[in-house]
Amino acid sequence: MSLYELVFIARQEISPVRAKELAKKVIDFITTKGGKIKKEEYWGFKSLAYQIKKNRKGHYVFFILDASGVAIHELGSQIKLTQDIIRHLFIKIKEKDFDKKPTKMLEENEGEDKQ
Amino acid sequence: MVELQKQDLKTDKRPYNFKKRSCPLSITGAPKVDYKNIKLLKRFMSEKGKILPSRITFVSTKKQRELSKAIKRARFLALLPYVNK
């Protein structure tokens, strides 16, 4: 078991509710494989720096997962089959790098809302 | 001006006070280099979206390596552009 970060970008046409459903699918998958969710964040409907599959915007969802390598590998192939997800990234992180505080992304989002 | 420089050469001093700049990411309390911290990464990129060389930003070799990796991750996730046209 080790810690992984996962970010995925969902298609622009879908609703935030559907994006959260996708997030829930990931959580269910990991928990059935015996893993844990350490952190879950919805970064919001952000504009992309460049077009991905003709999408100009996307729903960003972020996780920190504690799971086995096999489970992560299977999750990766599951995500590839999901057409609503246009891009995803797994990163293995060290135990000491884990931070309970919300990430910088959320802080920025809050700032945007205030403006 | 030329005279001044000659004098300085004699006394083995530099004509201007060059302060040695230390790495802005290695001092205590410096923010962590992370692909999620877009504001920080943008400070080390040119307007066109290129990664600035460390000889300009004075970032240490170790931190520059972390920085380039973080920027490339952020680019992959479309948080930063590959090129700013």
Outline the structure in words.
- The complex is a heterodimer of chains A (115) and B (85).
- Chain A is of the alpha+beta class and 115 residues long.
- Helix content of chain A is 36%, strand content 42%.
- Chain A is built from three helices and four strands, in the order βαββαβα.
- Chain A has helices at 16-32, 69-81, 104-114; strands at 2-10, 36-52, 55-67, 85-93.
- Chain B is mostly helical and 85 residues long.
- Chain B has one domain: Ribosomal protein S18 (30s Ribosomal Protein S18, Irregular).
- In chain B, 40% of the residues lie in helices and 0% in strands.
- Chain B is built from four helices and no strands.
- Chain B has helices at residues 2-10, 38-42, 54-57, 61-76.
- The model of chain B has no long low-confidence stretch (mean pLDDT 83).
- The interface between A and B is medium-sized, with 17 and 14 residues.
